[in-house]
Amino acid sequence: MTETLENQLNQDIARLYQEADDYNVKITVGEEPNEQTFFAHSVILRARSPFFRAALSHKWRNTQDSEDKITFSKPNIHPKIFRIILKYLYTGTVSFYQKNNDYTSLLIAADELALTSLVDHIQDHIINEDIKWLQRQLVQ
After folding, report:
1. Structure pTM?
2. Residues 117, 120, 121: CA angle, nearest 5 degrees
3. Between 103-112 and 116-129, two packed helices, what is the crossing angle to 10 degrees?
4. Is the Cβ–Cβ distance between 42 and 24 less than 8 Å?
5. Does 1 map to a domain?
6. Which among 17, 67, 73, 123 could bridge 90 via Cys, Cβ 3.0 to 4.6 Å?
7. How many CB atoms lie within 10 A of CB 115?
C-alpha cells in the first residue's frame, strides 16, 4: 500500500528554511546599506529553480569561501524580495498580506530566477485580488 505523507514532507522542508542548518550556499542580495546574506541548501535551490540549477552546476558554480560554502551574489534583488522568493522555494507558499507589496520587483526577480509558477501566481493575484494596484501602475 502506498500512502502520501506530503504534508509532513512539506513541513520538514519548511523547517530547513526556518533553521538553515547544514546549509552549503550563501547568497548575498541587495546593495549597501541594504545588503543581506541568506543561507540555503543547493539541493533545494537546484530542484526548485532552473536558474539555480544552472548557476550551481559545476560549470557555472561560483567560488567557495573559507568555510567551503558556495557563495552567490544578486545585488539587483532587494533582501525583502529575496526573502519572499526563498520562502517560496522552500515552502511553495507566498504571502500577499502586506500593504503596498512591490509586485513589480517580485515579478522581475521571479522571472530572472526562472520561477514561472511564481510569476504566474503573482500575475493571477494582481488580476484577481489587487486590481487597484494594477490600475495605479497603468496610470503611472
Report:
1. 0.82
2. 85
3. 160
4. yes
5. no
6. 17
7. 22
Write out the chain's pLDDT in tens, 140 residues: 455 667 777 888 888 888 777 888 999 999 999 999 999 999 999 999 999 999 888 766 656 666 788 888 999 999 999 999 999 999 998 887 655 568 889 999 999 999 999 999 998 888 887 777 667 766 66
In a domain, 86, yes or no: yes
105 belongs to a structural domain: yes
Place of cell 535551490: 45
Identify each DSSP E strand in the chain by its residue range.
25-29, 36-40, 70-74
Assigned C-alpha cell, 61 = 558554480
* C-alpha cell at position 125: 493575484
